[in-house]
Every structure is written in structure tokens, then in C-alpha cells.
Amino acid sequence: MARELVATARLWAARAAVSELGVHARHLRRLWARPGTLLGVDGWPPTRGERLFGRWNYFAQAHLIDCLVDAQERNPTAARATSIARIVRSVRLRHGRRWVDEDYGDAAWLGLALMRAAQYTPVKIAVRDIVRGLRGAWTDHAGGGLWSRADENLKSVRVNGPATILLARCGDRVDMQRARAIAEWMEDSLLDEITGLVWVGLHVNLDGEVRETIKEAYTFIQGVYLGVCLELAAGDPVWAERAERTIIAVSEHLANNGVLRGQGGDDGGIYTGILARYLALAALRLPALTGASATGMAASHVAERLVMTSAAAAWRNRAVARGGPLFGPDWTIPARVPRSPRHKIAERELASQLGGWMVLEAAALLESSH
């Protein structure tokens, strides 16, 4: 049995590695041909605008960094460490030599990725600037939470989830208190008591009245909320219980025959990969957080099974393209190879390739723990 687990671990690591090679071959190129730069091109085959980074995706770059850090933790190399540092520098250069985006959610996701990349390149100033911006996004409208943008009326988990994790990881007492407040606000305002899932967010009037609850339960919303639960569970066991609840709810409502549900193209290609990442972390951490309780162990097993079944489906339905495997946004459907830059399918998009790569890295992480 032990020998079989080792063999499986090597198998998933190899699959994650070839997925990384595919993304590198098709999507990574220098920014405006400048030496020492590197960014993810949004589409493949790329349009002229995509090649010149006239069109680029700040959100996707954050998750590209995260994927590369996953790969570096799996199998460290000097070349990959250099790539991580170059992408971090290039994000700032392409973004007008600033870190903070007008979209607080994108900024929070980048902040989380930069924290993980800190051992490969200096990021202290970047994280400080992002955290400062997030602190200013909190208001008491609708009971609390962060705005999605300074000029919008939306308060969503897309912002509040990664911001909570980022603030909790800063180590500052005030930031930790704010993280707990945001997390409780999400629990009180956005939990669907029937399913155990978390809704997207609230549209809020300037007088603080809630105009509309956006009653959609995207996969990445559950993923980042699960990450919030794991981050806060060490100091409060109620958050471990909420993590268990979230895992079971995902299993019952957001998976088809054990495969996590796809969320379409554009940024949606990344969404289910984010959920897979946090499910893998939950599978590893919950037993210790719950004292190996029966419910904690059961939820851990469910989380692991969801990741492994989804990774197997993504790999089974991959297409063969230049450089390596190519993934679609729905891992239960065979992926298609785009014919040209004008072939508008999700498989062209960097987001879908990152989503597939993420679930394979999550599977490799779980197998290496056995």
C-alpha cells in the first residue's frame, strides 16, 4: 500500500509538472520584449493586443504567481524562482508602477500571492500598500464588510474573503481583529442556511440599506470562504465547524459525481481551481484543527476525495496541444484545441489553464502527504 501511494504521488507530481510546462510554453512571455520581465499572455493563440499586453488580466497574474509557488514547493528550481521574481516585477511595471488596483478583490488576491512569493523577491512594500488600501475599504454600510471598489455599491466575498485571509496573515493585532469582523459579517450576511453555501454578496445603497442579495454560489466563493475558516480556526473552534459545513455543502451542491462544477470562461476558468486549492488545504489541516474528531476526519476525507476525483477528470478530459496538456473550464467535458486567435473558446484563456494546473498541484500536494 505504501509503495502504491508513493507511485501515485509521483504520478500527480509529474502531471502537475507537464501542466506547468504547457502554461509556460503557450502563455509566458516578456513584457514588451524587455529583458528580465515575464507575464502571462491572456490568450493562446494570442491576438496582437494580447501579445503586446494591451489586454491583460491582473487577477490571472495573481493566480499564476500562486501556481508557480505551488510548483516551487513541489519541486524547487532556481529557474522557477527567477520566473516568480520576474512576474512580480512585471505586474507592477504593467500596472503603471503601482500595486493597488481599483478592484479591491484583485488587489487582495495579488496580496496573498505576493506573501507566498516573499522568499523569492522583495514584496514588503507591495503587501503594505495593498493592505493599507484594504483597510480603507471597510464601512459599516449593511453591517460591515469591504466594498468591491471605491465607486461601486457591492460588498462581495470575492473581496472580503481574500482580504480576511491577508489581514489575518499580517500578524498585526488590529488587522486580526478586522479579519475576524469581516469573517463574522460574511457569516451573518451571506450564509444560505438551507444549503450551507455562501452567497456572492450584497448590493448596498448609500444609506446602508441592502438593496439586493446576489444569491449565486460560485465555486471560488466557497473556496475562499473555506480558506477564511481555516485561517481563523486555530484560535476559535467554531470556524473549524464552519469549514466542515462548507466542505459538505460543496460536496452536495457544487459537484457532479464527485467532480467540482465548472464556472465557464473568462475568470471563471480559475474559479474551481481556487476551490480545489482550499479543499486540499482543508484535507491536510482539519484533522489537527479538530483534534482528529469524527466530523473533522470525515470532512477531511470528503475534501480529499473531491480534489482527487476532480483532478482525475481534468486530466482525463485534457486536450493535447503545443507544449503540454490543455484544459477546458469544465473538467467533465473533453477540452478543445483553439484553431486560431479568433476561435473564442475558454481553452484559449490563461484562466482555464491555471484552473487545470491548480487542481493537479492540489492533487500532488495531497498525495505527497501520505
Automatic annotation (TrEMBL):
Entry-linked Gene3D superfamilies: 1.50.10.20
GO biological process: carbohydrate metabolic process
PANTHER family: MEIOTICALLY UP-REGULATED GENE 191 PROTEIN (PTHR47791)
Descriptive protein name: Glycoside hydrolase
